[in-house]
Amino acid sequence: MGAGHDHGHAHGAGGHGGHTHGASADSDKRWLSGALAVIVVFMAGEVVVGVIAGSLALLSDAAHMLTDAASIALALWAIALAARPAAGRMTFGWKRAEILSAQVNGMTLLVLAGWLGFEAIRRLLNPPEVTGGLVLITALVGVVVNVAASAMISRANRTSLNVEGAFQHILNDLFAFIATAIAGAVILVTGFARADAIASLVVVALMLKAGVSLVRASTRVFLEAAPANIDPDEVGRVMAAVDAVVEVHDLHIWEITSGSPALSAHVLVQPGSDCHTARTALAALLEHDYHIDHATLQVDHAEPELLQLGQAQPGAHCEDSHGPAHRNPGIG
Predict the structure, then answer these.
(1) Closest Cα to residue 142, out of 39, 35, 37, 49?
(2) Same structural domain for residues 186 and 253?
(3) pLDDT tens readout for residues 263-317
(4) How many structural domains comprise the chain?
């Protein structure tokens, strides 16, 4: 902001919203913990059966289930971190830990998709002998387990990228078991061993889609881009149209974590108007129309020459204004 403003008023409206507060966070933890327990029990059983049967396929699938368990454990850890209050250098608290968890889950999906894609192509070219009956039975049990785990996590707040990351892991594992069951049935009936590799490639495509979506969404938060459902130019124009407002500039909109948008802006109002009244009206507008309940607004009186169009450039009130300035079209 430029120096020398005689009537500077900087105010914050609301607090840091977020789904991981209070009862919602406790509910998320309960559902995620339940899903984790189901996954771990099935994984342990699959290891035992794999060792007894001497099946490398079952042991490999158990390793895949281990990544699902790890993704849920990571999500639970991130929720615990996000619940910590802001203190010391962590002025926003640890809310971004949830976004970090989502990005790790997304990148894990992409790495797994790469590995499974390579293995599927290798098996497509040189299909190994596959025991269709054992594959079919294990896959059907896996479908039931993953349906239960997916249902539990879907009850948590999936507007959180953190919870969504864990959900996508389990959902893709469900798709994998369904595809594996179909492949097992085909192999059992027809002996077509390549069905296993073809089913894997279908799952790889789904994993790539989910992984890219998670990484893209979490990267937007880390780069402090405006939420996907909020257009900063529209917000600036709407704010500038409020009574007594002359100009809005240095407008920044970002997300502290998923579902917690924040805004800061420098607002110039007409000389003689009440800065506090304008700030209150703007804060109410932002919360009602855009669900932004954390707004920091510096409100100043505009210099007289700024009211005369053509004699001053928008944003001239600040020596180093960031981004476009939005003028009230009814003042001039």
Answers:
(1) 39
(2) no
(3) 999 999 998 899 999 999 999 999 999 999 899 999 999 887 655 554 444 445 5
(4) 2
Residue 89 belongs to domain with CATH number: 1.20.1510.10
Q: Which residue has the higher pLDDT, 210 or 230?
A: 230
Please give the model's pTM, rounded to 2 decimal places. 0.73
Same domain, 127 and 149: yes
Same domain assignment for residues 121 and 217: yes
Our CA angle for 286, 330, 301, nearest 5°, is: 65
214 & 251 share domain? no
Range of the domain at 154: 22-222
- On whether the CB atoms of residues 269 and 301 are closer than 8 A, the answer is yes
What letter would DSSP give residue 223? T
Identify the pLDDT of residue 311: 40
Q: Which residues of 136-174 are buried (b: 16+ CB within 10 A; e: fewer)?
A: bebbbbbbebbebbbebbeebbbebbbbbbbbbbbbbbb
Using the predicted structure, report yes or no on whether residue 260 has a pLDDT greater than 80: yes
Question: Does 43 share its domain with 145?
Answer: yes
3-state secondary structure of 13: strand
Give 46-105 pLDDT, tens digit per residue. 778 767 755 545 656 666 677 788 888 888 888 888 788 878 888 777 888 888 888 888
Among 188, 207, 222, give the residue marking a domain's end.
222
